[in-house]
Specification:
elongated; Multidrug efflux transporter AcrB transmembrane fold; Gyrase A, domain 2; alpha+beta; 2 domains; four-stranded antiparallel β-sheet; about 450 residues
């Protein structure tokens, strides 16, 4: 292998290539299983996909519609983050709906409760409480209405809302020793200063043994009686009742209590929502998608490696090294930017394999043409890269613009394809114009250009 003098520019290229390679290896480690390398989308990991439609959205003007959708999106993101679900996707979909993708969700019912809970909390005065679900109660005036608890027992309550969830500062799940035996949990409410002051005023207006209904989304969860102790505490100041109220009920289990507490902390949705579409993808289907997708990548990858070596011999090794480096760059970039790998994203990776090789093929063919004219190997390499530059930039720039348009305007599946395609295009250019060129110019690979030199005849 010939000796080559390394300039300052050459050392810079070495440093860049080595740094990119080492960084890619670090971020791709442990290489397998795939879900430990990159975040997987709904189609690969399994989970729940929902399309939500806010109630009355069709009757709203455009500004109100945008505000409502943004508020719902923010509240749902807050709920999902607190619940601890990984890689959620919540965004406006179709102009007046919201798409919710929850990869890895094991229980669709929990997802429905978390997302569909309006969390409209109200405190109402109870006029009369029923004793069984079969009992019929009749309101005494238009200022009263019938609400039922979770067991169907009716209550006559005032329509006037004494306090809402806006008065809350926090909500947490608790379980007392007496309740744990029967798996009964409660939600401890903590008021803001203004909310506690308002609650103290309410206590002052109510009599001992009167019932105060705690209503969540139109259902009574509990209706505790006002006690002498709570009235005394309220009279002594709002600080005594900041965290003195709970939501309980015989049928609240731990998971439901957790979801309700999260919904109350995140705040009530501005309007009710309807789940108009729901798809559940099982983890076994996701695992099968991963297996098939990675098998496709592996088969295509190996076939390309064999083809490049068979057709270009030693130069094919350069192309193969560039391809391997680009695959590391693609998966490392997905990890670094927190991008989600989807099944269409795997298709983008497969396309990237072809594009990486295509860039090297264009360069190699141009180098071979230059070598046939009698140029030295090094001169042929330099001329080949310089004359291929405009072609490579034009082809890859148009692909990159297409990927950007798909990313900005496409839906979830198309965006997944666009992300991997865009990263692959940039990686392909780097590998071809920096890594491959360095190998060809400075490591002696140029001496193995597989062509016959046409020597000029002397007359």
């Amino acid at each position: 292998m010939a000796h080559h003098h390394f300039t300052r520019s050459d050392w810079l290229r070495i440093g860049v290539v080595v740094a990119v390679t080492v960084a890619a290896l670090i971020f791709v480690y442990p290489f397998w299983p795939l879900d430990e390398v990159v975040q997987l989308g709904l189609d690969l990991q399994g989970g729940v996909r929902m399309v939500l439609e806010p109630d009355g959205i069709a009757d709203m003007n455009e500004q109100t519609k945008v505000e409502v959708l943004d508020q719902i999106q923010a509240i749902l993101n807050n709920r999902v983050d607190q619940y601890g679900l990984a890689n959620p996707e919540i965004r406006v979909f179709g102009g007046d709906r919201i798409l919710v993708n929850l990869p890895g969700t094991a229980d669709p019912e929990d997802a429905r409760r978390l997302i569909g809970q309006t969390a409209m909390l109200e405190f109402r005065r109870v006029i009369k409480a029923g004793t069984s679900a079969l009992e019929e109660l009749i309101p005494g005036s238009s200022s009263q209405e019938i609400l039922r608890n979770r067991e169907g027992i009716p209550y006559i309550v005032d329509r006037e809302v004494l306090l809402t969830g806006a008065a809350l500062a926090d909500a947490n799940v608790g379980a007392s020793t007496a309740l744990q035996a029967s798996s009964r949990y409660y939600i401890q409410l903590e008021f803001t200063e203004a909310g506690a002051q308002r609650f103290a005023t309410i206590m002052g207006r109510m009599d001992v043994n009167e019932l105060l209904a705690i209503v969540l989304d139109g259902a009574i969860y509990s209706a505790p009686a006002v006690t002498e102790s709570i009235k005394t505490a309220a009279a002594q100041g709002w600080r005594n009742i900041v965290d003195s109220t709970t939501i309980s009920g015989g049928s609240i289990d731990q998971e439901e209590a957790k979801i309700l507490a999260i919904a109350l902390r995140a705040g009530a949705l501005p309007v009710g929502i309807t789940i108009v579409e729901e798809t559940t993808i099982g983890p076994s289907l996701g695992a099968d998608s991963i297996r098939r997708g990675m098998m496709t990548i592996a088969i295509g990858f190996v076939l390309i490696l064999l083809y490049m070596f068979a057709f270009y011999r030693v130069l094919g090794v350069v192309g193969n090294l560039a391809l391997i480096l680009n695959m590391l760059i693609v998966f490392a970039s997905l990890n670094i930017f927190g991008a989600v790998l989807t099944l269409p994203g795997i298709a983008g990776i497969i396309l990237t394999i072809g594009m990486t090789v295509d860039a090297n093929v264009i360069i190699f063919e141009r180098i071979k043409e230059e070598r046939r004219t009698g140029k030295s190997p090094l001169a042929a390499v330099r001329a080949g890269f310089e004359k291929s530059m405009s072609t490579l930039f034009d082809a890859n720039l148009t692909t990159l613009i297409t990927a950007l348009i798909l990313l900005l305007l496409g839906t979830g599946a198309i965006r997944g394809f666009a992300v991997t395609l865009g990263i692959g295009v940039l990686g392909s250019l780097f590998c071809a114009l920096v890594a491959s060129r360095f190998l060809m110019e400075k490591t002696g690979f140029a001496s193995f250009i597989p062509v016959k030199v046409i020597e000029e005849r002397k007359g």
